[in-house]
Amino acid sequence: MARKFFIGGNWKMNGSVKDVADLIKLLNNFEVPSDVEVVIAPPALYVDRVNQGIKKDIKVAAQNAYIKASGAYTGEISPQMLKDLGIDWVVLGHSERREYFHESDELVGEKVAFALAADVSVIACIGEKLDEREANITNEVVARQMKAIANKVKDWTNVVVAYEPVWAIGTGKVASPEQAQDVHAFLRDWLRENVSEEAADNTRILYGGSVNGSNCKTLAGKPDIDGFLVGGASLKPEFGTIILSRQ
Questions:
Q1: Is 198's pLDDT higher than 70?
Q2: Catalytic residue positions?
Q3: Largest CB tally within 10 Å, which of 25, 106, 149, 150?
Q4: Global confidence as pTM
């Protein structure tokens, strides 16, 4: 079975009421082919507003969630709350959360498992830093991050993996299509050896890191790249081009 092409848009901490209204209008005019899944992740404050206004071809995700359903966890939101709002996706383990908020591999694994148990699908982010890439330990780093998830998650049906080399996020630097394909192929082999043949064949592995309208088609042509997690370009008209990058 062919893996359905997947385009994620991570708005990060950007937007205002006006910006969100403008983006909803822009997105609602985009063509979304039937063989492409599109999921956008606004800041938590705007998740419900976007979900109410966006057309049904586009789904909405939160950018983070905690490992408890409710309680005295000031500032956090839970997968159960997302589900209550009709939000079926969450982005977890993004490098910015690992870096700035000190989320460990183990915590990310727990978050993924907890969200899945609440019937919220997960975009699980992994990726190496520049010094790790230069030390030629990219595969070891992403394998360690994958293992922390696999330790907690046996069924990968509702997991999408996003490989984002940290040195390429928001920097304008992009992994070459060959570099990206090499890591994606390694990840697929890793799933085959450590999870199952089924997980390797069916799990979508996205590339993220300065994806834009001009480089998306070349990247989309690689056999193990199943889509993108897009940052800055998801706030611009070129996101419509990226959605069509496999057409």
A1: yes
A2: 164
A3: 149
A4: 0.97
